[in-house]
């Protein structure tokens, strides 16, 4: 396998998988919380929160990336704060690629989870309450398992979006081989050099294979879960 | 005896206003009234699913709601089992996990293992343990829901029309289990229903609800026969309930003899063995009144008694009479003309005549 791919290509594949997985896992708790707020919360500014969450879906990715650069760069207000107090640097690092792809995948994740929370029968939660479960337990043992299919779909969508994310990533963290060069950036780089066709094709095939695998895994998980919470 | 439950609440739900008070010491208190009368809102207030605008709820001596004192115990700390009309089993859990759901949140004790076995046996659901709720019939679901509520160790069991969504055969399947629950388990029950048949068979105390108000409250037999209650629901025909003991069967005639305080009744053959206790309901329109002991009539049941009260004249020119037969109250519906012709008044000695075939069997 390593003969087939050059070390640079390998590192792009590995980095993409790491970035996408980290982005998916790191945004899950926030995604759950925001989806819960949007599905169940009643507070001032709910529609503003809704709009802000969906913004990366509508704006050109380059714009999102540029805003990230302004805010999270070394000189940006948030980036400076993170560096001074936690020593975290995001710009031009792989962690920045994680942030960029997480932000881009976030609306998709929130949307899927929110829909599934809204679909949960509140009457079942009432029933759990009369059996002695407080609100936290009701969420953990009734609501969460019942919206598991939606959570899985949201995670897969976020992963897929992160795998393919290009515009925001390249604007925010550039295209540094070994550090921020993900699969799409690597393919793009290959298309910019005269004899890059073979490399671009190899990475394209790998990209397709990963997408198809993710799709199969999600289908399989969804079927497994659906069987467990079969129709009432 | 302290009341098991005391409720006195006012609450507004949209255009509907609930203003109801009752208390009960009974083992099974039925909340009875037509749909939309506010019965379900009342039990939801008792369970803590609705917080009433004003009022008090006391169960088993513990104040659960007192708006004046600012008390509101949240639903998960009330220890009140709730059997919903639509069962509401958790679809992602097996029957066993559903049954033991309340156990996770209630204090454990040593007897819990045998308790599950006892409930499984009581409700006949032992063979369903490993199934999923989706694979159960309506009647089975409802029995599992009852078991689930019981196993959360409630101090009161609320049952909101648990039979309403079932067909007649399934109802007949579940009724005996609810009777066993009432008689064998020490948990008082509040049972919501709009069915006379269920109320007559199950209730020890009857609370009638109409348009958000409690119209009557007391022992089932008494409330059912009371004249003012008779016209409560369009579906309800006035009638009286008589407690009886099965004395024996007349096999050749397919009849059962019942001993009551009013005298011996003969009714259609019952499945209850001799010695068993039953209740029969006699519709007011099925009772005939005779001044002297009638001779040469086909009716098998002739009960001597005395007129206690003559009700107000109804729309159809009929009146209802309360007749005391040896301590049992019998309700009879006559035309005003008959009452005048016989010269009936409170205190008149009469004989009540009832055809055996018209008695709703036990």
UniProtKB/TrEMBL annotation, chain A:
Residues that span the membrane, as ranges: 12-39, 51-72, 92-115, 136-157, 203-222
Any one cellular-component term (Gene Ontology): plasma membrane
Main location class: membrane
Location(s), subcellular: Cell inner membrane; Cell membrane
Highest taxon of the lineage: Bacteria
Keyword Cell inner membrane: yes
Positions of the ABC transmembrane type-1 domain: 13-216
Record keywords: Cell inner membrane, Cell membrane, Membrane, Molybdenum, Transmembrane, Transmembrane helix, Transport
CDD domains: TM_PBP2
Cross-referenced InterPro entries: MetI-like, MetI-like_sf, ModB_ABC
GO MF annotation, one: molybdate ion transmembrane transporter activity
Bilayer topology: Multi-pass membrane protein
SUPFAM superfamilies linked to this entry: MetI-like
Residues annotated as signal peptide: none
Purpose of the protein: Part of the binding-protein-dependent transport system for molybdenum; probably responsible for the translocation of the substrate across the membrane.
Similarity annotation: Belongs to the binding-protein-dependent transport system permease family. CysTW subfamily.
Protein's recorded name: Molybdenum transport system permease
Organism, as annotated: Bosea vaviloviae
From TrEMBL, chain B:
GO cellular component, one term: membrane
Protein name, entry field: Molybdenum ABC transporter ATP-binding protein
Residues covered by the Mop domain: 296-362
Record's keyword terms, sorted: ATP-binding, Cell inner membrane, Cell membrane, Membrane, Molybdenum, Nucleotide-binding, Translocase, Transport
Residue span, ABC transporter domain: 1-236
InterPro entries for this protein: AAA+_ATPase (IPR003593), ABC_transporter-like_ATP-bd (IPR003439), ABC_transporter-like_CS (IPR017871), Mo/tungstate-bd_C_term_dom (IPR008995), ModC_ABC_ATP-bd (IPR011868), Molybdenum_import_ModC (IPR050334), Mop_domain (IPR004606), P-loop_NTPase (IPR027417)
Recorded GO MF terms: ABC-type transporter activity; ATP binding; ATP hydrolysis activity; molybdate ion transmembrane transporter activity
Lineage: Bacteria, Pseudomonadati, Pseudomonadota, Alphaproteobacteria, Hyphomicrobiales
Family: Belongs to the ABC transporter superfamily.
Gene3D superfamilies in UniProt: 2.40.50.100, P-loop containing nucleotide triphosphate hydrolases
């Amino acid at each position: 396998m390593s003969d087939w791919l050059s070390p640079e290509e390998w590192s792009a594949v590995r980095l993409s998988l790491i970035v996408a997985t980290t982005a998916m896992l790191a945004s899950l708790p926030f995604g759950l919380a925001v989806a819960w707020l949007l599905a169940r919360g009643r507070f001032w500014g709910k529609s503003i929160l809704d709009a802000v969450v969906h913004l990366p879906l509508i704006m050109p990715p380059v714009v999102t990336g540029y805003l990230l650069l302004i805010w999270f760069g070394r000189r940006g207000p948030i980036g400076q704060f993170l560096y001074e107090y936690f020593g975290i640097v995001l710009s031009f690092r792989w962690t920045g690629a994680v942030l960029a792809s997480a932000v881009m995948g976030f609306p998709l994740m929130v949307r899927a989870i929110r829909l599934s929370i809204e679909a949960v029968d509140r009457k079942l939660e009432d029933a759990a309450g009369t059996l002695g479960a407080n609100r936290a337990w009701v969420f953990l043992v009734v609501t969460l398992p019942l919206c598991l299919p939606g959570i899985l779909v949201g995670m897969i969508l976020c992963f897929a979006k992160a795998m393919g994310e290009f515009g925001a990533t390249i604007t925010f963290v550039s295209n540094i081989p070994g550090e921020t060069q993900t699969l799409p950036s690597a393919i793009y780089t290959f298309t910019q050099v005269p004899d890059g066709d073979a490399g671009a094709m190899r990475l394209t095939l790998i990209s397709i294979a990963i997408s198809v695998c993710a799709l199969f895994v999600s289908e399989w998980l969804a079927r497994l879960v659906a069987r467990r919470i079969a129709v009432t | 005896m302290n009341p098991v439950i005391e409720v006195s609440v006012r609450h507004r739900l949209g255009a509907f206003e609930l203003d109801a008070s009752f208390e009960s010491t009974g083992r099974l208190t039925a909340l009875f009234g037509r749909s939309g009368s506010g019965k379900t809102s009342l039990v939801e207030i008792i369970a803590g699913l609705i917080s009433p605008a004003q009022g008090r709820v006391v169960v088993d001596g513990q104040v659960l709601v007192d708006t004046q004192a600012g008390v509101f115990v949240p639903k998960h700390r009330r220890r009140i089992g709730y059997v919903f009309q639509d069962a509401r089993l958790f679809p992602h859990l097996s029957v066993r996990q559903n049954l033991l759901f309340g156990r996770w949140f209630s204090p454990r004790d040593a007897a819990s293992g045998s308790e599950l076995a006892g409930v499984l046996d009581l409700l006949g659901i032992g063979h369903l343990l490993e199934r999923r709720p989706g694979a159960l019939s309506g009647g089975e679901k409802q029995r599992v829901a009852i078991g689930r509520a019981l196993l959360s160790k409630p101090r009161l069991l609320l049952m909101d029309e648990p039979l309403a969504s079932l067909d007649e055969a399934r109802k007949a399947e579940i009724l005996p289990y609810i009777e066993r629950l009432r008689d064998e388990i020490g948990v008082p029950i509040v049972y919501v229903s709009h069915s006379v048949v269920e109320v007559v068979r199950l209730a020890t105390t009857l609370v009638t609800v109409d348009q958000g108000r409690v119209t009557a409250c007391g022992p089932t037999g008494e409330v059912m026969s009371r004249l003012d209650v008779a016209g409560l629901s369009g579906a309800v025909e006035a009638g009286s309930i008589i407690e009886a003991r099965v004395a024996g069967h007349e096999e050749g005639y397919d009849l059962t003899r019942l001993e009551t305080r009013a005298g011996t009744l003969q009714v259609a053959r019952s499945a209850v063995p001799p010695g068993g206790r039953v209740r029969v309901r006699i519709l007011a329109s099925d009772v005939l009144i005779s001044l002297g002991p009638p001779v040469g009539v086909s009716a098998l049941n002739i009960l001597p008694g005395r007129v206690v009260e003559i009700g107000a004249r109804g729309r159809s020119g009929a009146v209802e009479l309360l007749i005391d037969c040896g301590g049992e109250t019998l309700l009879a519906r006559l035309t005003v003309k008959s009452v005048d012709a016989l010269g009936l008044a409170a205190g008149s000695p009469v004989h009540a005549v009832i055809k055996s075939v018209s008695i709703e069997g036990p």
